[in-house]
Amino acid sequence: MKTKIQINSTFGKLLFEFEKENNSIRSTLIEAAKINADLGGADLSGANLSGANLSGANLSGADLRSANLSGANLSGADLSGANLRSAELAVQTLAVQTLAVQTLANAISKLPASGQKIE
Q1: Distance of CA 69 to the CA centre of its chain
Q2: pTM
Q3: What is the pLDDT of residues 70-98, one digit of tens each?
């Protein structure tokens, strides 16, 4: 059975939707990144994005609280203003385009080698 997943902004505006068999938020976000969809302000709190290729994704102002980003490729991603509180950040590639995110800078400085969650 096909499942349609919508990615909405924190204000409820539809940013992207994708439908396929056995769909997941991770698969939907990867498809959005492939077409350079503007995901600025997306509500991705608690999402399992482990291993996702999000290179070049616009995630500025996104709510990524408690999201699992372990093993994700964030090369060239824009995370300015993103909320990464309690996000799992053992990322594979973190050469992000915009590092004007105080939360990200603080999270990286506390990043444990084992990839445990940052509280």
Answers
A1: 7
A2: 0.73
A3: 888 888 889 999 999 999 887 544 544 44
